[in-house]
Write a structure and sequence with these properties.
By secondary structure, the protein is of the alpha/beta class. It is built from 11 helices and 10 strands. 38% of the residues lie in helices and 21% in strands. α2 (37-52) links the parallel β1 and β2 (55-60). It is globular, with a radius of gyration of 22 Å. It starts with a helix and ends in an 8-residue tail after the last helix.
Length: 314
């Protein structure tokens, strides 16, 4: 009998240990290119969540908002960073996702604004209207940047036929500017963006501004944009630059556990000050819970409810 009891205790102890080993949840988190804010900030957030919670998050290089959503749809990732407009396209089956809606994901938290940055080395290009006849990178094919470029050009009654478009990533766009292959490039990312910062170390960079009249026209046609100002200090500019922005949002597959998503949100917002990235200064519970039209994951809703904030869920 004693041997049986001893054996039972051993089995129970091993079962407890194995259960403990399985308690650590693991998530793959798609970000962006290595020269963009998604990757830099996403990697830091993933590390902090892993260190401070029972969920291990691994940040990987992504191919932008559309690609991140598609990876999640296939089950190759459980979370992703996306533009708020692209997330809306996917959920509604419009624009980038025309006739192919993706609805198996939910909002985790809105993080910060992503500015539409039209960068050039030519000081004579001051307005979007000045892009007519120029060679301009409008982002990778099918990317959120591409549709942002189309929207901004349309506000000035321009189309891709009025420019010579190229379809390049952030890093390739800045390299092409450096080499004189293009006149300007659209980069949609939270400023300061590594690709532009690197370019500015050896060149005088300029940001093409949008004026209030055309910003109003753009927002009327596409209400997910908002007016935004990039401070001169971001890139050593002569003055602040006025543009528009969309939100950067973390989303997760619906089948990710409530506990894991709760860990993600708490891992970020309970310790904002320890995030080693300037974007931490833009994080807030108020911003995290507003400005998106895709319902929140139940794990995120649980955390926000503890803070006295109710968000819509499926």
């Amino acid at each position: 009998m004693k041997k049986f009891v001893s054996l039972l205790l051993v089995v129970l102890t091993m079962a407890t240990m194995l259960a403990g080993c399985g308690a650590k949840k693991e998530l793959i988190f798609t970000t962006g290119s290595e020269t963009g804010t998604y990757y830099g900030f996403g990697t830091i957030m993933a590390g902090q969540i892993s260190d401070k919670t029972d969920t291990t998050v691994t940040a990987i290089v992504g191919s932008g908002s559309k690609g991140n959503i598609e990876l999640m749809k296939l089950g190759d990732a459980q979370m992703g960073l996306v533009q708020s407009d692209v997330m809306s396209y996917a959920y509604a089956g419009t624009n980038l996702f025309e006739g192919a809606a993706v609805t198996n994901f939910s909002t985790v938290a809105a993080l910060y604004m992503e500015q539409v940055q039209i960068v050039t080395l030519d000081p004579t290009i001051k307005s979007v209207a000045d892009l007519k006849g120029k060679t301009v990178s409008v982002g990778e094919p099918g990317s959120g940047v591409y549709f942002n470029a189309v929207d901004v050009l349309a506000a000035y009654d321009l189309t891709l036929d009025d420019i010579t478009p190229t379809y390049e990533s952030f890093g390739n766009s800045t390299e092409s500017l450096q080499d004189g292959k293009i006149d300007a490039g659209f980069i949609v990312s939270g400023a300061p963006t590594n690709a532009i910062t690197s370019l500015a170390t050896t060149n005088d960079v300029y940001l093409v501004e949008l004026d209030d009249e055309h910003i109003a026209k753009l927002i009327e046609a596409s209400p997910y944009y908002s007016k935004n100002v990039i401070p001169a200090a971001a890139y050593g500019l002569e003055k602040d630059a006025t543009t528009v922005a969309v939100g950067a949002v973390i989303i997760a597959r619906d089948d990710v556990s409530e506990d894991a998503v709760y860990d993600v949100v708490s891992g970020i917002f309970e310790s904002i000050d320890t995030l080693a990235h300037d974007k931490k200064n833009e994080l807030s519970l108020e911003f995290a819970t507003t400005g998106v039209d895709v319902p929140y994951h139940k794990g995120a809703a649980k955390y926000f409810a503890e803070k006295g904030i109710t968000v819509p869920t499926k």
